[in-house]
Amino acid sequence: MPYKNSALLMVLAVLAVAVLAGHQTVPPMDRDESRFAQASRQMVESGDLVTIRFQDELRAKKPAGIYWLQSASAAVFGTDDIAAYRLPSLLAMLLTVLGTYRLARTLYKPPRAILAAAACGGTLLVFVEAHLAKTDSVLMLLCLVQQYGLMRIYQAWQHGRRLAFNSYLWVWVPMAAAILVKGPVAPLLALTTVAALSIWHRNGRWLRMLRAGRGLLILAGVTLPWAILVTLATDGAFLDIAFRGDFVAKVQSGQESHGAPVGTYLLLAGLLLWPASLLIPRAAAQIPLLLRHVESRFLLAWVVPFWVLIEFVPTKLPHYPMPVLPALVVLLVCAVDAPLAGAAKGGMRTVARRWLALAVEAAMLACGPLMAAAVIWAALTYGGVTGGRAFTFAMLAALMAGLVLWQSVIWHRSGGIAPLSRVLAAGLAFHLIVVAGLIPSLSQVHLARAIDAGIAGSGPAPAAIAAAGLHEPSLVFTLGRDLLLVEGGEAALFLAEAPDGLAIVEGRQQQDFLDMAAKVGLALSTPRQIEGFNMSKGKDVLIFLYRADKFDPNSING
Q1: DSSP 8-state class, residue 520
Q2: Residues of the chain with pLDDT > 70: what percent?
Q3: Which terminus of the chain, N or C, has less C-beta within 10 A?
Q4: What's the pLDDT score for residue 350?
């Protein structure tokens, strides 16, 4: 047992070091991360733990829970570094990996449980989200704790065991915390799970063990105080915007151009779960066997209904499957030594199953080369002035993707934990190289960092700054909440009134800026130019840094 504990601790340590490296190198990302971080910074600076604001605008997108966690981290580690706001996501990821191990131990012996934990932390989706100051890693952890508590109740009912009277708290307390982090996602997950199990057994009497009356009181006691305070502070505007402007908008249509058809997550599963997605075809063939066992049946009820639900939600974002990902990874590990479905000879149905399984497994194997090609393309397209460094990281990542493919083929032929462990290790190395090395080297896409460096190199620090056309949250986080977000003509008026200021003018706003400067007689110094790519809008941009040209009478002779 000490050996197994050491292996688990090593997995956690490697993941922690890998993510911390990215925390230090990746600049603030648009748009959600920078919005969360800036709002949390303002919470620290203002001391207002109730109302959430981005600059002077009410930010009614998510409840206050995640801002409390990020502001607490920033209060300890400093408010200026984006890494401080990312720490809650890292801690949540590590605890999720630990919880995944505990979940897997209900089905497997320690070696496979450790493999499940490593697969969870090493999937592309989980690893990337652990680098971002957002809600999703924390939500995944809270959903895992909630569902584990629910599974214990279901196990007790199925095996005829008695549980401690307070076992229901492991369902309702994390659910309440999850509501404070991201609204109704956790209750929806619990609802889809218990509905699926009750329909399967045609029996809902086991739900009495949840103590729903007490549970609802816990939810009210945890969530209502803040809800009442924010309602009073904003005259009801916060909850109204949060419900109608965010939640309902996502359910009714694809919000902010993030719509996609039903089946999108299924098609993207190979990439989102990579490299653990290699196990999908063989695990799918084991579903009839999984349905016979209490624990794996619960995991299927955890994953399948919620996955179907998010497929039908018009708004599609990559992180939506995260609440079910720990359970999904545990289910995938059942395929470590499983054979491919079907057979090479036999009836038509048997042979067809074989060829379908081979085709899906080939698609999973192709995800590695596809990602390698994508990172090389990104380095060549957006490397900019650091293109050489970006290309070096891209080639190292491609090498790791090749190693994943090689070990995946070995596993395909012989099965076993050893080659699959090497697949996961090489996949983690790929993620580390891409996130901590390649992404920071794509100078074309990090506009806020380039603008900040351009301002520092263009003369004395400006007394005030206005931005016209480029209003990305990363720019606000980098330059401070006092950054004025204006249009082109307004930026010229700003410089006329604040001659010691600086105007950041996006190319599409330049003509309006120059026209207004001419009208008010504003003399301008030669601007500094910055080229880049705005990822949020998918457009190439040209940025001009303007200062007023001050008249110096001492420079005139005579």
Answers
A1: T
A2: 95
A3: C
A4: 85
Cα–Cα distances (Å) from 376 to 114, 125, 190, 385, in that order, read 32, 20, 41, 16
Q: What is the mean pLDDT of residues 162-183?
A: 94
Going by C-beta distance under 8 Å and a sequence separation of 6 or more, which residues neighbour residue 531?
A: 384, 444, 540, 541, 542, 543
Give yes or no for a contact between 325 and 125, defined as CB atoms under 8 angstroms apart. yes
Average pLDDT over residues 177-187: 96
Q: What is the pLDDT of residue 343?
A: 79
**How far apart, in whole angstroms, are the C-alpha atoms of residue 511 and residue 454?**
21
Which amino acid does the sequence have at 497?
E
pLDDT of residue 256: 53
Name the DSSP letter for residue 140: H
pLDDT mean over 358-384: 96
pLDDT at 556: 45
Which sign, positive or negative, has the C-alpha torsion 39, 42, 47, 53? negative
Angle at 514 between CA 511 and CA 516, to 5 degrees: 110
Indicate the angle between helix axes 136-159 and 82-104, nearest 10 degrees: 20
What single string gives the DSSP state of each residue in 304-356? HHHHHHHHHSSB--TTTTGGGHHHHHHHHGGGTTPPPSS-SSSSHHHHHHHHH
d(CA 92, CA 97): 9
Q: In the prediction, which pLDDT does 351 show?
A: 86
Paired strand residues for 57: 54
- End-to-end C-alpha distance for the chain, whole angstroms: 90
Query: Which is nearest to 172 in space by CA: 135, 207, 122, 204?
Result: 207
* Reported pTM: 0.94
CB atoms within 10 A of CB 6: 10
- Could you tell me which residues are beta bridge partners of residue 475? none
Count of CB atoms situated within 10 Å of the CB of 305? 20
Question: 53-54 and 528-534 as β-strands: parallel, antiparallel, unpaired?
Answer: unpaired
Alpha-carbon distance of 292 to 536, in angstroms, equals 46
Instruction: Using alpha carbons, list the distances in angstroms from residue 30 to 78, 217, 264, 319, 430.
Output: 21, 38, 23, 15, 23
Relative to beta strand 539-546, strand 528-534 is antiparallel
Span 435-473, pLDDT tens digits? 999 999 999 999 999 999 999 998 899 999 999 999 999
Place of tokens 């080229």: 531
Query: Closest Cα to residue 273, out of 91, 103, 122, 433?
Result: 122
Beta strands 465-468 and 484-486 are parallel
Amino acid at 108: Y
What are the residues facing 532 on neighbouring strands? Answer: 541
Q: Pairing relation of β-strands 53-54 and 484-486?
A: unpaired
Report, as an integer, the average pLDDT of 505-524: 96
d(CA 350, CA 384): 53
Describe the strand order of the beta sheet including 465-468 as a list of residue ranges: 484-486, 465-468, 502-506, 539-546, 528-534
If residue 544 lies in a helix (H) or strand (E), which one and from where to where?
Answer: strand 539-546
- How many whole angstroms separate alpha carbon 451 and alpha carbon 173? 45
Nearest to 505 by CA among 535, 543, 533, 459: 543
Beta bridge partners, 506, equal: 543
